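Backbone-to-sequence.
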C-alpha cells in the first residue's frame, strides 16, 4: 500500500504522465489502474457520459482475473444506464458529488439508489465497499464516473474506503478528468477526419476504424507479451498504434469520387489510382516529428502489403514521389512488393485487423459474411496474405475480438 507521501508524489507524476497518453481507451485503462492502486482496491469501472446516459466503458477486477489462465483477459459487455437517481453511478452523476458506501448490501432503504446484484450473482463476485466519484471538468460538467470497489487492508481483507481515500480520489479524479477531456477531444478530431473520409468512401465509418484500432491493440499486446517486451514499451506502443490504426485509410480523402464511389469493380487503371491512397496517407505523416508520426506513416503505407510478397502494394517506394526505391524496381517498372518482415509490424497487424473487419461487417453494398466463412478466409490467408504468427495470435484471442465487435457497433445508417 502507498504511504501518504508516495500518494502525493504519485499525484504529481500522474498529472504529467496521463496527459502523455493520446488514446481515450488506453487512458481509461491507465486511470482505473492507478486509481485502484491508490487505495488498494480489488476492482473498479469507468463510465463515460453520453448525453443523458452513462456508457459502461471499462472495468478491472483482480479477483476475477486470477480465475483466468495466464495471458487471458476479462471479457466484459458494454451497456448504458440512464443518468438518474436509481443507480449508484447515476446518482453520483446527477449530484456531481462522491458517494462512499461501506457495504452496498446495507444501503439505507430510504435511499433512492440501490446496488444491482445481478453482476455479483452472474460472476460469483462479492461487492462490498464502493467509492464512486464524478469526473468533473473545470466548468463543473460531469464527463464520467469513476467507481472503485472493495478496498483491502494489508491482510487483503475487504474494508470500507476511508475519508482520506475519498479525499485522495477526488484529487486524482480532477487530474484524470483533465487528461480524459483532452483525449476525448483528440478522439473527436480523429473521428471527424474519419467522417470526412466516410463522406467519400462508405467503408470508412467511425465504428469500423474504432474496431480496427481496438483489434490491432489486442493483437499487438499478445504479440509483445509473447516476445517478452518490457511493459513500459508495450504501453507506449499500444497508445501509438490505437490512433495510427484508426487513420490507416486517411489517404482516401485524396482519391477521386469517380473511383471511390464507383458501384462496380475497378478496371486496371482505376485500381492503380486507388492503390495510391497508401502513399498519400503516408505522405501526411512523412515529416516525422514523433513516434506517432512514424507509426501512422508505417500503417498507412503498409497495411495492404502481403506476407508472401504477391499482389501487395505499394511496395518499396519513396513516399515523396511514389517512385520505386533504388534497387527495388521490377522489370515492368513497378516497385517490388514488400514481403515477410520487410513489412513493418504495425502494418502487418493493421492489415489483418482491417481485412477481418471488412469481411465481417455489413455495408450498404454488401452483407457481412458469416463468422465461420470469415474465419476460414483469415486462416487460409496465414503465410500468404497475413503473417502466420499474427493469425495464430488472432485466433488465440478470438473471444476478445468478438467483444470488441459488440463494443463498437455500426450505426443503422452505416
Amino acid at each position: 500500500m502507498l504511504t501518504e507521501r508516495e500518494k502525493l508524489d504519485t499525484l504529481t507524476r500522474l498529472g504529467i504522465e496521463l496527459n502523455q497518453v493520446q488514446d481515450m481507451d488506453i487512458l481509461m485503462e491507465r486511470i482505473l489502474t492507478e486509481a485502484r492502486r491508490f487505495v488498494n482496491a480489488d476492482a473498479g469501472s469507468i463510465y463515460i457520459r453520453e448525453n443523458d446516459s452513462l456508457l459502461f466503458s471499462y472495468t478491472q477486477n483482480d479477483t476475477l482475473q486470477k480465475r483466468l489462465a495466464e495471458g487471458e483477459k476479462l471479457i466484459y459487455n458494454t451497456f448504458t444506464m440512464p443518468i438518474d437517481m436509481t443507480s449508484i453511478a447515476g446518482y453520483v452523476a446527477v449530484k456531481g458529488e462522491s458517494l462512499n458506501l461501506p457495504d452496498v448490501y446495507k444501503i439505507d432503504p430510504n435511499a433512492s439508489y440501490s446496488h444491482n446484484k445481478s453482476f455479483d450473482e452472474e460472476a460469483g463476485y462479492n461487492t462490498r465497499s464502493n467509492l464512486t466519484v464524478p469526473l468533473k471538468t473545470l466548468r463543473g460538467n460531469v464527463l464520467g464516473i469513476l467507481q472503485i470497489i472493495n478496498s483491502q487492508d494489508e491482510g487483503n481483507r475487504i474494508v470500507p474506503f476511508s475519508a482520506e481515500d475519498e479525499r485522495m480520489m477526488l484529487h486524482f479524479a480532477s487530474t484524470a478528468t483533465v487528461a480524459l477531456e483532452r483525449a476525448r477531444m483528440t478522439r473527436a478530431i480523429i473521428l471527424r477526419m474519419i467522417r470526412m473520409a466516410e463522406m467519400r468512401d462508405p467503408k470508412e465509418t467511425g465504428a469500423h476504424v474504432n474496431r480496427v484500432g481496438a483489434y490491432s491493440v489486442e493483437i499487438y499486446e499478445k504479440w509483445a507479451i509473447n516476445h517478452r517486451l518490457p511493459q513500459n514499451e508495450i504501453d507506449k506502443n499500444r497508445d501509438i498504434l490505437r490512433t495510427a490504426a484508426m487513420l490507416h485509410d486517411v489517404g482516401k480523402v485524396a482519391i477521386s469520387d469517380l473511383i471511390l464511389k464507383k458501384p462496380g469493380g475497378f478496371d486496371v487503371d482505376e485500381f492503380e489510382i486507388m492503390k495510391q491512397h497508401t502513399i498519400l496517407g503516408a505522405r501526411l505523416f512523412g515529416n516525422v516529428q514523433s513516434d506517432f508520426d512514424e507509426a501512422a506513416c508505417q500503417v498507412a503505407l503498409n497495411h495492404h502489403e502481403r506476407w508472401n510478397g504477391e499482389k501487395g502494394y505499394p511496395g518499396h517506394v519513396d513516399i515523396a514521389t511514389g517512385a520505386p526505391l533504388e534497387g527495388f524496381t521490377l522489370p515492368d517498372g513497378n516497385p517490388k512488393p514488400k514481403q515477410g518482415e520487410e513489412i513493418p509490424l504495425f502494418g502487418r497487424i493493421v492489415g489483418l485487423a482491417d481485412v477481418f473487419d471488412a469481411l465481417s461487417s455489413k455495408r450498404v453494398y454488401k452483407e457481412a459474411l458469416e463468422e465461420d466463412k470469415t474465419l476460414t478466409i483469415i486462416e487460409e490467408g496465414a503465410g500468404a496474405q497475413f503473417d502466420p504468427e499474427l493469425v495464430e495470435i488472432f485466433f488465440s484471442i478470438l473471444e476478445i475480438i468478438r467483444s470488441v465487435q459488440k463494443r463498437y457497433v455500426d450505426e443503422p445508417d452505416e
